Amino acid sequence: MLLSLRDQLTAIVSPEQVVLVHTRPQWTRRGLVERVLEKKIIPCLADGEYTWSVAIQTLDTEMVKLSPASARVILSNQFVHYAMVDWNEALSNDREASALARHRFVQLYGASADVWELRTNQDAPGAELLASGIDPRLLETLRAAFFRNKVKLVSVQPALMAAYNNSKKALRGEDAWFVQYEAGCLCLALLQQGRCRSVRTLRVGEEWSAELPVILARESYLTELDVTTEQIYLWAPESGALAVDAGWQVSRLQPVIRHGFMPDYEGRYAMAMMK
To answer: Is it true that domain 8-78+134-161+256-273 has CATH number 3.90.1150.10?
Structure first.
């Protein structure tokens, strides 16, 4: 796919901060590559019932300063609900698949899920659907901010989907835990032959890495799936050395980043710089 020759903004939006990477395509001897014009992290503090409101206000303010032509947004797992949806061969189109996913969300989360905006991801034909649900008020506020700033919003993606899709080649069809960490939150996906079979998010403290074996043992029991593994694929590019029980095999995932970004790469900007 050809790159647009106009500036693009990638924003990672979470309750605690907004991560921004502002880029512009440039011609070089190696061809057309993206160059980083500016990158920054703006702290913010969740306020009241809508934990996303301050973060979106912060993003709105920064867009006025940067004036990109287009943008893509990755939302923290703390703003997203997840569910696995069993595939049904009787489904004949996307509309029926969406209806099945919505039914599952209402079962898990109650009547409020009936209005959430849903997305689905399927690893292979016939496989279970990994579905995500987002409060429509969040998305409406986000889209309004981009419309107000005359910036084209190219995509909005949940953090788990972004990291999981970026890491698929590394997972090699194994039985394993895919663990994604962000400040105060873990997202746990149990993989069977490289395919996601269960997913859950939970709040954690600063000692999360030491507690991870106990957390995963509990989650293995709760899933009731016939999957036994001591392999962990860990997405935590912002974290340094971690203390995980020696009985587990931990592979630190390295994000596949976009061409030309390596000189500007830092772990805390991993989500914004990856392909």
So the answer is: no
